[in-house]
Amino acid sequence: MTASPARWFRTYRASPEAAALRLVCFPHAGGAPTTYRSWAGILPRDIELLAACYPGRQDRIGEPFATSVHAMADEISDALRALADVPLALFGHSMGAVVAHEVALRLQEYGVSPVRIFLSGSEAPHLRERSESQPEDDAAFLAELRQLGHSSLAAVEDPLLLELILPSIRSDYRLSAAYQPSADSPKHRAPLVAYTGADDANCTTKDVAAWSGYTSAAFETRVFPGDHFFLQDQERQLLAHISGHLQSDLRLRRVLDAGRRTRN
Question: Which domains, from first to last, does the chain contain?
């Protein structure tokens, strides 16, 4: 059975006219689609913004958590097929980057190649260290996350809120730590852009540059000021870079489509 797009994606701004492109965003571990809500007022009007909602949070809080990145990518890519009537681009941060990577590979198998894939705050898959351990003590676990500047912790001084969101954060960190890429995955046909923060000790420029081996198309890295969650303070600068690429991609697609129509 095809997965429902409405179950997996939240639309923070539908294009007032027919969308020229859909940008689909994937949150970090413990993150929610609201991470990307503010992007809606910054992106060009012809780009429709969708954000993935993982099981076990927000309006899906009653659902079981995902069992693996691969299982989640299977369902998400299935749901995205119904939204591929216009070009798709993918963005993922931290754990969301590997989710975007796996989703794009599955879309490619379906014959749907994103116009571009943006991967942020994540080392290339073959560099990830597999580990399922995390501090049992909540205080120690939260201390580790705060060192990263974890954006989901802004309101967790309230014990009731902490009790509500901590299980999803722990579940996602287990998924991320246990993730292993498939050994025989093909390369992306889409161009890749990899981002990191200059002060992110856990994801260096060298770590993101290693994504270059995962595409047969163009590859680019960009380093922004900030730590692992640089995209909060550098939001406008990041979106200007993303939008520039997407508008260029759309112009190229229009030229190619016009050429095909002329030949036919």
Answer: 5-259 (3.40.50.1820)
